[in-house]
Amino acid sequence: MDLLRLSAVSIAYGARQALRHVSLDVPAGALVALVGPNGSGKSSLLHAIAGTVTPQAGTIHLGGIALTTLTATARARLVASVPQSARLAEGFSVAEVVMMGRTPHIDPWRGSRHHDAAIVAEAMRAAGIEPLADRWVGQLSGGEQQRVLIARALAQQPRVLLLDEATAHLDVHHQISVLGLVRILAHQGRVVLAALHDLNLAALYADHLVLLAHGTVLASGPPAQVLTAALIEQAFGVSVIIATHPFHGTPLVMLRDR
Amino acid sequence: MRLALRRGIGRHVATPAPVWPVVLLGSVLMTGAAGIAVLVGSVMIPPAAIGALFWRAVAGGGHDPWPATYATILFDIRLPRVALMILTGAALASSGAAYQGLFRNPLADPYLIGAAAGAGLGAVFSAMLRLSMPALPLAAVPFGAFFGAALTVAAVYALGRVGGATPVSTLLLAGVALSALLSAATIYLLLRQARQASYILAFLLGGYAGGGWEAPSVVAPFVVIGFVVLYHCRRELNVLSFDDHQAQQLGVDVGRARLRIIIAATLMTGAAVAFSGLVGFIGLIVPHMARLLIGADHRRLLPLAALGGAASLVLADTLARSVVAPEELPLGVITAVAGVPFFLWMLRRARSAAFF
To answer: Whole-prediction pTM value?
Structure first.
């Protein structure tokens, strides 16, 4: 099983310190959710793993591979990202967008092969968008577009899948269907790290939570250990009541008026 | 039409549409346009004569019932001119498609980022150098155009750079500003050579009045190499038309890919401008029409833009030399008359649609 290991990763944007010496192990096979207030460093952490931001200090390893030393192409064969609400350029069909996930694998002199098409078809099937293959991405609903982006990430055949608020703009129906899919993908043996805003969704779907505040890891563990009134007050500055989900037994976070 | 082009024949629906139907369509358009261009002109050559002349050129010998001038007109005037128009149209349209995808701007074309203005100054400068130094080969003109275009694009890139990144908006603004300056310099250079007034006008309005195979054979390698590089970058162009972060997460070295695409497109623009002057609208409108027809996937868009650009310019040039025959209209006048209404229609449509 893969293990994604961050050791003392620090990121600063000018004078603003976004991450301070964050060390974190993310094992494969579990859906790990990153939670925390705005500006706590969730996105920066995901960008550091994806390679779109270079950390000032620290190392990121996947198994024995130091991700920070890889080229963009080599890294994209290992790590795929699903952005919050990606700008999906007009004029591409769903199948064409999902095929872009093969970009790091395809030799431009030879072009795509049958086996690339098979991987694209399989990715679309896994994301439940096979019937949309010939539609233009611009005509799809937000939930469908998000599934296209997940399929594109799956077509990369990554060992690490990152999701940055991938459900933030979706209605509850689509949030649940996307997170259910993501959890299946994690349980199939991938490293999956998802930044989530909604604490209750995180409690319901994630196997493991990482609570970030001010660029450091405040708590890490199963939902019941992380979602406590004390930790949430410390991280978000709001007082909450924690109940137990009557059906699933997971923690349920209820806000209190000040 | 669009569905048939997308699906191809017998294609499993869950894969991207194949490239070959688009190449077939483009080739038919281009061959048709070239056929018309060879037949039509101030002297109309009957199709039978053309067939016979080609046959004689391949098989040799035979009796010749046609006026002797037909062979000269066909092989020394029309065919090289058609060849040059094919190369120029393909270069302008495919570099336009690449610039539009790269800058995520439907109005980006060789003119907007300053490449054409730089190429124009470079071409005029080296053409004038050849007047005083006749030993200089003709290839100096496209080289001059390429260096002019490359220097301009580099300057635009440097000027448009803000804090380590190069946002598209500043890039385009820098391109427009620098273009104005360079066009002024070109006109000044041209005015100093007042004897060449007809050449000035021909260049500024676009058009080609020379003859023979020298110009097309000098331009061909630039266009072919440029297109091969662009097509090699087709997948990078696809992901770059989303955003830089997504492109990088899909394994594209954004800075390098962008540089490679800009150099290839600039090379093609330089070659096109060097002998055909400033022909507007082909690089803007042909890629748009291609995108409306088959979508934005550069695997298919680049070949269709190239072949469609070739067909369009060949037709425009045929019109230019036959409307007021035996006089010629400047080529740029034809492309502007055909292009501006389309451009305005596109602008009005752009209010409702996001991209086109």
So the answer is: 0.88
How far is the C-alpha of A59 from the C-alpha of A63, rounded, in Å? 12
CATH assignment of A1-78+158-223, among 3.20.20.60, 3.40.50.300, 3.40.190.10, 3.90.180.10:
3.40.50.300
Q: Does B318 touch chain A (CB under 8 A)?
A: no
Q: Do B297 and A96 make contact, defined as CB atoms within 8 angstroms?
A: yes
Whether residues B248 and A72 touch (CB distance < 8 A) is answered with: yes
List chain A residues with CB under 8 Å of B13. Answer: 95, 133-134
pLDDT tens-digit map of B112-148: 778 889 998 998 888 888 878 888 887 788 888 889 9
Q: Which residues in chain A are classed under CATH 3.40.50.300?
A: 1-78+158-223
Tell me which residue in A81, A99, A104 faces B16 most closely, judged by beta carbons.
A99
What confidence tens digit (pLDDT) does each residue in A152-189 have?
A: 999 999 999 999 988 887 888 888 988 999 999 999 99
Interface residue B17 vs chain A (CB under 8 A) = yes
Residues whose CB is less than 8 angstroms from the CB of residue A32 and which lie 6 or more positions away in sequence, other chains included: A26, A186, A192, A193, A194, A206, A207, A208, A209, A210
CB nearest to A104's CB, from B243, B245, B251:
B251
Whether the CB of A258 is below 8 Å from some CB of chain B: the reply is no
| Helix, strand and coil percent figures for chain A, each rounded to 5 | 40, 30, 35
